[in-house]
Write a structure and sequence with these properties.
S-adenosylmethionine-dependent methyltransferase activity, Rossmann fold, SAM-dependent_MTases_sf, methyltransferase, alpha/beta, 8-stranded mixed sheet, 8 strands, 23S_rRNA_MeTrnsfrase_RlmA
Length: 252
């Protein structure tokens, strides 16, 4: 089978594969990404075991929350992407969580001072004012966030050279948290190596992590995908770097 046909078959398979939820099992054996050293899921589980009421914002398919071994008495999650809402409801039944569908960029539909703990893994956008509002005095916000320039090498492989990133810098998050009346008690950053072993893995990732190449479609970027397939075939896995930061803040 010639290289062009191999590329088209890999692309077609990835374009047809489901991308609902927030799990990355489809990439097993085809792509890898280092994990942050702080162990976000472990930190969440530890905090959850010590509170009465908790909220997970932008839960995705509920994958992280479902692994909490000792959930609090009141456990709630929000999700704004409709395909993920039902996935999250099924996933989170076992921990007794209520999943609330919300509008993108809308206010959190909860009363003031409702939660001891608010967590969020890779939120699309953190509304710091709303987060501070729903936290009880003494409550904690814990979040693993996507940092500035994450997967820049992959974005530029498709889009060409890009300007320096102006958003998602950790220091901006600290300033926004403090402006909302929160006190930042922990901030950590990590650069994580990612490898893509075939062009199908690239296509599936770009369909799922939509901010890497905004407006991505296979038809729109087919030539760039073919070029990247040839690069992977000739040189080995494509390497990019994910940026992550952990931020923890409390409401005084």
């Amino acid at each position: 089978m010639n290289a062009e046909r191999v590329a088209e078959d890999l692309i077609a398979d990835a374009a047809a594969a489901p991308v609902d939820g927030w799990g990355f099992g489809w990439l097993a054996g085809r792509a890898t990404e280092e994990r942050p050293p702080w162990g976000y899921a472990r930190l969440v589980a530890d905090r959850m075991a010590r509170v009465d009421a908790a909220l997970d914002v932008d839960t995705g398919g509920g994958e992280v929350l479902a692994e909490v071994p000792r959930p609090p008495r009141l456990l709630t999650a929000t999700e704004a992407w409709p395909p993920n809402v039902e996935v999250a409801r099924r996933t989170l039944r076992r921990v007794g969580a209520t999943v609330v569908a919300v509008a993108p960029d809308g206010p959190l539909p909860f009363r003031d001072s409702s939660f001891d703990l608010v967590v969020s893994r890779h939120p699309v956008r953190t509304d710091w004012t709303q987060t501070a509002r729903v936290l009880r005095p003494g409550g904690t916000f814990l979040s693993q966030q996507i940092g500035a320039g994450t997967m820049r090498e992959l974005s530029e492989a498709i889009l060409g050279p890009l300007p320096a990133p102006t958003q998602r810098h950790p220091e901006h998050a600290v300033a926004a948290a403090e402006a909302a009346g929160l006190r930042v008690v922990d901030l950590r950053h990590a650069t994580l190596r990612a490898e893509f072993s075939d062009i199908g893995a690239v296509v599936w990732f770009l369909r799922k992590v939509i901010w890497t190449v905004p407006g991505f479609t296979v038809d729109r970027y087919r030539e760039q995908l073919r070029d990247l397939h040839r690069q992977i075939t000739d040189e080995g896995p494509f390497v990019a770097h994910a940026q992550r930061f952990l931020i923890e803040a409390t409401r005084p």
